[in-house]
Amino acid sequence: MKTIFISIPWFVPAFKAGGPIQSIANMVYELNEGYRFYIYTSNTDLHGLPIAVAITNEWVEYNAHTKVWYANKKNRSQQLVDQVKSIKPDQLFIIGLFNWHFNIVPMLYAACADKLVSVRGMLHPGALGQKGLKKKLFLKAMQWMKLDRKCRFHATDEAEAGYIKNILGPHVQVAVAGNFPRLFPLQEPVEKEAGTLQLISVGIISPMKNYLRVIEALAGMRAVVRYTIYGPVKEPAYWEQCLEAIKALPANITVQYHPELPAHKVAAKLTGEQVFILPSKSENYGHAIAEALSAGLPVISSHAVPWLALKGNNAGVNVDMEAGDAGIAALAEAMDFFAAMGQEEYDSWRRGAAAYVRKRVNREELVAAYDRMFGGER
Q1: Least C-beta-crowded within 10 Å: which of 79, 118, 218, 287?
Q2: Rounded Cα–Cα distance for residues 308 and 356 (Å)
Q3: For 146, phi and psi rounded to 5 degrees?
Q4: What is the pTM of this model?
Q5: CA–CA separation, 153 vs 133, rounded Å?
Q6: pLDDT digits (tens, 9 = 90+) for 101-153
């Protein structure tokens, strides 16, 4: 039995921080044999918003092999160090890089011989471009303190392993283990008329997700489009730009915004939608993309995601978002492509999306990869 102590800034029932929460929730669900997990996290969601937990500052049961400690602000860092010392885990699994309490403190002060840092897409060039100076200064300090030599690193694919080595050096130890997705059943057929389109996005509102460029691409469309966005606003100034662009859209385009979507409601909100769109500057995994595909929604995304060759699999379209105005034109072309479809053609793509994601996911291989990373036995 391997004991894994996980340090993560936010965890279920928090959901506004997106992918990392879902990644760890899926992992502790799937790795249900041979492991005992202790998840140390905050008692808040993104931006310090409170979450519905009755007990803080002690271990509470999450599932049969997982306990969670929801730490309030007082003595948060010291409690983490104390709990690691008390539990004596085989591995300390640190989710993220730049959070003081849940990333930096355990890297520096927690007593565990095997520290494994999961960078979660934070060293992707697109991610490093956001608030880049602070991140680069931290990474330099990390190397100066030799933390890159005292920790192992977790990448979710070979591309991310390359980003880690490019930034921290070829000497770093990197283990590759992909994310466990949450797959939904293929939804019932959706009525599709040529000249209409129902789009949906689920994701944090930030420049990383390229919402503004989607809205700008909608401006030139002649089809009747309803676009529904679910996601908390991470960067208000960026969302203000989006709102101004929405105001200028023609009458044939309708945009609806909902500030939050808890994980347990995602499947229901995908029902009845036709195409999922999220042309991100980078995605470590893109849980929302995988979930949409599994439900049978073709996806419009970028090339900076793990879900590639979409068009060749009748599962969606990957758009080059590095091409400036050409990227906006390519987005419009992709949306027009789906808007023009009638029922029979759309149904073929709906089935293609569901088949594509299921072909890409191999649970046995994922479990074996985590066993290698954690040194577990099966």
Answers
A1: 79
A2: 10
A3: 60, 25
A4: 0.84
A5: 22
A6: 998 899 888 889 899 999 887 777 777 666 667 777 778 777 777 777 788 99
